[in-house]
Structure formats: C-alpha cells, structure tokens
Specification:
By secondary structure, the chain is of the alpha+beta class. It contains 3 helices and 10 strands, in the order E-H-E-E-H-E-E-E-E-H-E-E-E. The chain has helices spanning about 10-15, 45-60, 110-120; strands at about 5, 25-30, 40-45, 65-70, 70-75, 80-85, 105-110, 130, 145-150, 155-160. The protein is globular. It comes from Pseudarthrobacter psychrotolerans. This is Glyoxalase.
Length: about 160
C-alpha cells in the first residue's frame, strides 16, 4: 500500500481558526486499509499533561511523535495516528467515561510479561490501575489485561497476547 501526504486539505486543515499546525492527512491510493482505524482524536483539558501521560503510553506501545503544534500533538503507528488536542471549542474541561460516548481505548500490549512491566511503570507516569485486586483477569479468566485511568479520567485497557 502506498501512502502520500496531503497538507492543508479537508476538515483537519480548518478545524480551529488560527491553529498553527498544518495537519497532514494520510490518503491511501488503494483499498488495503478499508475498514481499519484512521485516527482517534482526544480533546484534553491540559495538553502538557496529555503529552506526558499519553506520550509515555503510546511510546511504550511503539507509537512515535507524528505532529506537534501549540495546542496539540499526535502519535503515529503505521497508518493510524492518535491526536491529543486542547481545543478552544471544548464544551467542558472534564471527561467522564461513564457517560454516553467513549468509555475506553484498548490496545494490544505484547506478552504477559510485557504487560506486567507496563503496569508497574504506569504508576510513575500518571496512570492509576483500575480493578487492581482482580489483575490480570478483571475481564475474565481467559483475558489477561490491565485497566488504567489517567489524571483526566480517560480509561485505557492493555491486553496481553496469550
């Protein structure tokens, strides 16, 4: 699959007036990526905190910094990227995962040993373990996973490969 970048086009280019980032949109020249996730955009109340907390998690999962601008940052792994932005258009400064909308993001986290180390390190990077007393089987006896929540209330599920 060949990818090329289109700078400054589509809804990403004009979403925030005065935004100093010229978002790049990855466009596939064939249908190999049809149905896969293109990107996720998280609106966060504190971009500096998001850079610390999400940046650590995503780097640990193999993502690298893709774009950065005054009010946001994105990380990319393959054709998928994740954006954190402190948008002036936010209607609230709080995320509540138990309300209608996004509850959590789930990622493959490598082996069970990888996940155990990940969970231990996460405490030093702003993440708190949920259901700690049931770790690693809070999702069931055949599901080796950790559930973490960050300072802004975003939940992350990390799933180990069997």
């Amino acid at each position: 699959m060949t990818l090329f970048r289109v700078r400054g086009s589509g809804p990403q280019a004009d979403r925030v007036a005065g935004d100093d980032c010229a978002h790049e949109r990855l466009t596939s020249v064939n249908n190999d990526s049809k149905g896969t996730l293109h990107h996720i955009e998280l609106w966060v109340p504190d971009i500096d905190r998001a850079k610390q907390e999400w940046g650590w998690v995503l780097a640990r999962l193999g993502y690298s910094t893709y774009q950065s601008w005054a009010s946001g940052i994105s990380w990319r792994l393959g054709p998928t990227y994740i954006v954190a932005e402190q948008s002036p258009a936010m209607s609230s400064r709080e995320h509540e995962r138990t309300l209608p909308g996004l509850n959590h993001l789930a990622f493959h986290a490598g082996s069970q040993e990888d996940l155990d180390v990940f969970v231990e390190e996460s405490r030093r990077h702003g993440w708190v373990q949920l259901f700690e007393d049931k770790y690693p089987h809070a999702g069931g006896p055949d599901h080796y996973a950790a559930y973490l929540v960050n300072s802004d209330g975003f939940e992350l599920e990390l799933v180990a490969t069997a």
